[in-house]
Write a structure and sequence with these properties.
Elements (H helix, E strand, L loop, with lengths): L7 E7 L3 H12 L5 E4 L8 H4 L31 H14 L6 E2 L4 E7 L4 E6 L2 E10 L21 E4 L13 E5 L5 H8 L5 E5 L6 E2 L8 H9 L1 H23 L6 H14 L3 H7 L11 E2 L3 H5 L4 E4 L3 E5 L2 E4 L4 E3 L2 E4 L14 E2 L6 H4 L18 E3 L12 H22 L4 E4 L1 H15 L3 H4 L21 H7 L8 E5 L10 E3 L4
Helix pairs in contact: 1-11, 5-6, 11-14
Length: about 500
Amino acid sequence: MDGRERGHVRVAVIGSGFGGLGAAVRLRRQGITDFVILERADAVGGTWRDNSYPGCACDVPSHLYSFSFAPNPEWPRNFSGQPHIRAYLERVTDIFGLRPHLRFQSEVRSLRWNAEALHWEVETASGSLTAEVVVSATGPLSDPKVPEIPGLDTFPGKVSHSARWDHDYDLRGKRVAMIGTGASAIQIVPAIQPDVQRLTLFQRTPPWVLPRADRRISAAEKWLHTKVPATRAARRGLLWGIREMQVSAFTKRPERLGLIESLARNHMKKAVKDPALRAALTPDYRIGCKRILLSNTYYPALAQPNVDVVTAGLAEVRGSTLVGSDGSEVEADAIVFGTGFHVTDLPIAKRVTGVHGTTLAEEWKDGMEALRGATAAGFPNFLTIIGPNTGLGNSSMILMIEAQLNYLADFMRQLDVLGGKIALDARPSAVQDWNRKLQQRMTRTVWSTGGCDSWYLDANGRNSTVWPGTTGEFKKVTRQVDLAEYEVLRPPKPAGSSTGERAEVAV
């Protein structure tokens, strides 16, 4: 199909990061080739294409942060950097023959459900099409969030976000302000500190930081993993098992995390000798409440003489003067925002209009909810990869993505088994029941009891982001579609309702 002309496909996949490419591979393995991958940029990679800031790397071991169906024995390090992960996704695209399905420069502008035709009407930057099924794999870390700072538009220097790094702008010799202390910031700070004249870190909340057990993977290991695949599988299994055993401390027994806190305190003490700076960098909440960060270079960088830590957020900009919420003032030539993404208010949700004429964002105004992290009531044949409550605090999101791909595969099988022109719409009662049980489990977790305000929580203080269990458990509950949780929609009779005919399913 020419991307600039109206056409029809069975499946439209939005996004070409891990989730979108994984969905495309799974569709092909199901024998489904009538699909397109709609990508707003000009290359695949998603988060790992957009985030190319200095020091960008993954905080999950490489052999676990890759598809089980596309192992890579050539990972260069335990924790690989952005260029290697992006190259891996390019190889996956080629190995599984996904290039013909890609439509670049095709940002989705709107999705509207047509109840009579039982398909989605898709408007993109490159044209229009219709699709029987839509798989949204835009990801929660795709749209940068920059806080509204009074006077920011008066700043005469360079303003950027970690996910939109300008490699043409030279920071050497500049006075740089780093806003935020999340996963991106702790990689950027040590990467740019040796080159800048002065680096000021605006820290509202200090993170817990543990050592990063990174090293180069030897040629012998690569050879062994290539020649004896069982060793590669064993390595992945060990990495997975260790993290599965940690889950209960996060979800049921947060008090057990005290030992990990001690390790983090000792890690800081080795690098930061100044007691006042150590006090400023020590969190006052339980470790794990926010995502635990890994770095061997963050604390040493903060201890350097050309670095200042402001224990306050950025409150105002007056020309080249940055004013902290504590009243402190700093002169800067460049501002780098490491302030995260729109996670609990996914931008794509504003563009999806369902059976009731309301958008997904409107339906989620009180918080995101989806059945098994995949489907929302009133949005038939619309599945989300990395949907609500599928995030992790200690393991690889690729495991969760693959579990959701299993669910997608069975969703497509159920459509085939039921036959004819049909759609599956999650029952409101099923969505509510699933999320009620999730939130009940959430009350015991460190994310709810740890005493912090994290990006896991939405505007109402509700955790709509993280999965309160093991990846093995999530894989089990997404193994197949339970038709009792769905209504089957069939085309309306000539004189029928415009909302389509709903049929009960015997199970």
